Amino acid sequence: MSYVMQLFEDILSGGEEVRFGESEARAIYVAAGGALVEGAGVAADNGVVLAGTALVRADAGGATLWRWDVVPSGTGAGDCRHRAALRCSGPVEPATIADDLLLRLDSVAFPAGGSALLHTHQGPGIRCLKEGDIRIDTAGHSTTYCPGSAWFEEGPEPVFAQASASVPSRFIRSMVLPRTLLGTSSIRYVKEEDRDRPKSQSYRVFAESPVRLGPA
Questions:
Q1: 101, 109, 140, 142: least surrounded by Cβ within 10 Å?
Q2: First to last CA, the chain
Q3: pTM here?
Q4: Interatomic CA distance for residues 118 and 95, integer angstroms
Q5: Per residue in 115-139, pLDDT tens?
């Protein structure tokens, strides 16, 4: 079975409650405000990973969520009674990643002028820029993203990232990875000489959890 990762932005008013439908794997990041997710409080700039349905209630001041859902290909957005927008989507093929998988939600931060040397990852995912700006060079194309912009990376395709020269930059991402990477980085540098060079980016893992996706 083939799957797709979808990134939604959900905007909830104060005290609004919504139950998100079934998802094989889901990451929720609170971009602004605060919320209860399945009864547990999640403050701004924090997130969780879970599966199945998810009951979310916004705090009194409301909440903006970034929500990554991994669902079977062809699945629609569902019946959204709140303000929701699909920001990005991309394919997930479990057989090309590993037999056992995990879903990770983390952030990658760069100082002004920072960069990520040419690299690949061991699974696909969607990134969304939180602050600053960043240029992504991959597959012969160069694209610059501003806050709120999202993009999909398939994983094996080499990527070079150049952050803003004037301000710090940071993006939030969720990736489907081999389960053997629990607690460890997924990055692989393309050039041997880059592996031991000083790196400017820093990471914060919000949550990660094993997931089970059906066979092809």
A1: 140
A2: 4
A3: 0.94
A4: 25
A5: 999 999 999 999 999 999 999 999 9
- CA dihedral (16, 21, 27, 28) in degrees, to 10, reads -10
Q: pLDDT (tens digit, 9 = 90+) per residue, 179-193? A: 999 999 999 999 999
Strand locations in the chain (E)? 3-12, 17-20, 25-37, 40-43, 46-50, 54-72, 83-92, 101-110, 115-120, 125-131, 134-138, 141-145, 150-153, 159-163, 169-178, 188-189, 202-211
Structure-block tokens of residue 38: 């399945």
Q: Which two tokens stand for residue 213?
A: 């996706």
Given a contact cutoff of 8 angstroms between Cβ atoms, the answer to whether 57 and 16 are in contact is yes
Q: Residue 3 contacts by C-beta under 8 Å, 6 or more apart in sequence?
A: 24, 70, 71, 72, 73, 91, 92, 93, 94, 213
| Cα–Cα nearest to 26, from 45, 46, 53 | 53
d(CA 46, CA 137): 28
